Amino acid sequence: MAGVPECRFTILCREENKLFMLQNLPSMADNQNTLPAESGLAESITEAFGIIRRQLLVIIFFALIGITCGIIYLRITPPNYTAQAEILFDRSNRPIVQQQSLFEDAPFDLSFFESQIQILQSERIALSVIKKLDLMKDPEFAGSDGGLFGSIADYFSRLFRPEFPKSESEFEQQAVSVFLQKIEAKRIGTTFFIEISFRSNNPNRAAQIANAVADVYIADQMESKYETTRRANEWLRGRLNDLRRQASADEQAVNSYKTDNKIVNAGGTLIGEQTLTELNSALVSARAKTSEALARLDRIEAILRMDSPDAPVDATVSDAVSSPIITKLRQEYLALVNSEAEYSARYGKNHESVINLRNKIRDTLTSIASELRRLAETSKSEYLIAKKRQDDIERELASSVSQSQATNRARVTLRDLESAAESSRSLHNLFQQRFLESTQQQAQLFNEVRVIEPATVATQKRSPKPIIILALSALGGMILGGGLGLLREVMDRVFRTRKQVEEILHVPCVAMVPLQKEDPKQKHTSSDQESHTMPIGLRTITYRSTVLRAVLNPPLSYFTEAIRSIKVAADLIRKKRADTTIGITSALPNEGKSTIAVAFAQLVAQVGRRVIVVDCDLHNPSLSRTLAPTATIGIIEVLSGECSICEAIWTDPATKMAFLPAVINAQLIDTSEILASALTSKLFDQLRQSYDYVVIDLPPIIPAVDVRATAHLMDLYFLIVEWGRTRIDVVQHALNTANGVYDNLAGVVLNKTNMDYIGRYDEHIYYYNNYYNNYHKKNMD
Length: 781
What we know:
Blueprint: H1 8-24, H2 40-54, H3 56-76, E1 81-89, H4 110-120, H5 123-133, H6 139-142, H7 147-160, H8 168-182, E2 183-187, E3 193-200, H9 203-261, H10 271-304, H11 311-314, H12 318-322, H13 324-347, H14 352-443, E4 449-453, H15 466-491, H16 498-505, E5 509-514, H17 525-530, H18 558-574, E6 580-586, H19 593-606, E7 611-615, H20 622-627, H21 635-640, H22 645-648, E8 650-651, E9 658-660, H23 671-675, H24 678-690, E10 693-697, E11 716-722, H25 728-737, H26 739-743, E12 745-753, H27 755-758, H28 763-780
Parallel strand pairs: 5-12, 6-10, 6-11, 7-9, 7-10, 11-12
Antiparallel strand pairs: 1-3, 1-4, 2-3, 8-9
Helix pairs in contact: 1-18, 3-15, 5-8, 5-9, 9-14, 10-14, 13-14, 18-19
């Protein structure tokens, strides 16, 4: 039933069951192989959506700013109307009888159309249209056409530079500059059409200028062709006169040279040429015979120079083979060689008949060699005769050549003169023909460009487009807001999720304690009522803040569940030890460590366990000033022996939680020495014997070194980190400087968590809150 408080037995059973379940669950390290990890892509997408959720207001704010800028732009920007005219390039309607053009037409390829587009957008065409339509008097071209921004820019430019009256050329240049910004020419697909577009604030003016550009371009093309043809005709006429004079002079030079050198052709050939031809033929034949005789002589002499006795027989000489004497001697030699071989095999090599045959063979070889020497003498005589004949022909040819050199030189010069005269006459005739064709073309110029669709007056403005401008403005604002949001995320170097704590510090995040605020309606009520239940004279804890009693009312709140998570984490370690001393500290002051210490002790005391909270923040004992503002003795007096522990302890009448304050009447310098002393260690041993839990409210790590001096006193530590405020590097620095704390650190507690905002950083917490609220709502019902 709602509103009925739970008894201590029920709370105690819940704590024991929760501890039992946590101890029997496998560790996260053991379940890494059984629990599927979220994929990297899914995790990245989830993180991206988380960033969008967290920075949604920033993105929406800048999107609204972008839309506002777009609306302002639409209001101050004058409308633009666009008119289009289309021209066609076509050579199919040329005249049927068309002379060959003096200049070859460029093919209709990509480079051709790009060139024509540049011409359409050139300053020459722009200036011609401006003069034709007298656009220099139009404010759109003579003044600033930049709208509000352009007017502002002109105003500031006039402030910082002296104003001089503009000349006519400056006005023209300004009008041309504005004109070129508004004109656009492009090819339509892969066709032979070019579209001419012009933007103007006046739709009639836009159509008029687009048509004027097409007309001026066509007229410019005609004028260009006419001017090109005219200049070509003038050049051809002057060149033709020069060639005529040159041809006449060359022909006269040929006739004069023939007369001076008495050159007369008979049948087209000179007499000396026939003689030279015959002598050349005879010389070739004589040289062939001389070479043949010399080769035969060299071969015979080479055979005679051989050392082998059988060389004359084995060597092949055509004259020797054809000689009947050598043929007969060779046959005899072969017969004797066969007989000698036969007798040697029959009678032996030293037989008298074999010896006689060898003598005959030697005589035969001698006869063959004698015949070869005779043939050599004959060949030598033939060679000398052929050589003499060759020398005679060469001398006769040299004489004939010497006699005809003068005539040949004259003919060479004559041929050059005749060739020059013939070339001059041919070139003159060619230029005369081209001159006649060019004259005809000048009278029949053909234009390959014509307007297919003239520009009409536009009925709708072309720009600015409200939907597009607003969409782009909103998109730009969203991008800027997203960039700023991403920058905020990067600069947000604080702890906000359990995952951050575990990945960065490599320690478990045991709890996320929600932010608690003061409740004015409940202030001072509980402590005043319960103080009457305690015996008179005992030191009673006074709660001056409802935050310090949040763990007791209501008992099923998220804050209480978070404190229970801290207790369960401590109990998992406490099972290994009989008594537990728990140190509660933080990196910086005001992170809520004292509140967590009191809440933890209250929860432990509520389930019937003996617990004491000791204020060891000797620099700033804020917990003592809150719970025992009238205390006059505390831990310092106990350590010094001025009083006993019982005389200094205060008690909570509701939970029986004990509290040992710290009364600091003067600033202490050696606080770390006090905490590290043997007396403090002895005091803590006494507290462990009297209480199940000894909760120590320690000072922060960074401002003082006291926490480092308690490493030998604490069984475990809990580090309190303020959610969304304490920087990551500060916590890392604190743990790096306190190795004893890090070695015995049971976990990190994220305190003062904004539960309404945490779901933007950790969707698991978001779903957990829903399940938690629904579960406890059903139980309460």
